[in-house]
Amino acid sequence: MRRVRPIASLALLALAGALPAQTIEVPIQPKATYLHASANDMATDAVAIPLSAIPAVSGQCLRLISLGAMDNGPSGDTINSTIAVFSASATLLDKSNLHRVVDAIDAGDEFISAATLSGNQPTDIPEDFRVTSALQADVVVQIPVGATHVFVCNHDSQYGDNSDPNGDHRIQITVVGTWTELGTGLAGTSGVPQLDGTGLMLGNDPWTLTLTDAGADKGAWLVLGLAEVDAPFKGGLIVPCVDILLGPLSTGPAGTISLTTTWPAGVPSGASVWTQYWIQETPVAAIFSSSAGLKATAP
Ligand SMILES: [Ca+2]
Ligand SMILES: [Ca+2]
Ligand SMILES: [Ca+2]
Q: Which of 139, 145, 176, 223 has the lowest tally of Cβ within 10 angstroms?
């Protein structure tokens, strides 16, 4: 088990050397919640984690994952089911209110929280999202504009009977890379080719570019650049500086290309790579379609 030491009032767990620089771990108090709780549920208040403690700001992406487990009452110390919500303040109203996080800001996919066990009272607020469950290991979410804090808590219908006997339940929050679409692309006979990227850009992890909707069996070129030029070309816009041109590749019968490489370690924070696909619509004429540009920025 990782050695820990308390930092400041939030008791942020120590950052082990193996963790990325912008990572924090914070204990999840088993009885704490930001959701409405019934009057006879001895729930406590969830603590707002300041984004400055990570540190992270609006526009950056975070990976949240809860680790360890708590005892929800009947099930033993086995439950890891957590939710979170961003806020523009640390304010949390009394548990008698439904919308307790008064400055909540929507982010991620909406999670519908369960009614209270006692009284079957509604608890759902529209701004929060799932972090970890039996079906979902973690979540990557972009910090919305204006957010300064994030609340994290267990998802339960009764909090007062919860405990964490071995004290290992915690939220780990890491700043990860950001993908940004630039421009709109240039339509071909199959519409506008779509370019998507996946990867956290933490270093030595997979980094994948996927082209879809490009039309079957066409020649395609992947443009990679270390700067953005937005130069007019063939009726569209070349977004990246053409530092690397990879092709011709074939879109195959499905009209797709997926390439995976390894994002290198040691890329400076904020450094970006611009990418874009150009697809030759006909082999005999210089008629092209293109995806939008896609910028990958290191955390
Ligand atoms: Ca535990
Ligand atoms: Ca419980
Ligand atoms: Ca909700």
A: 145
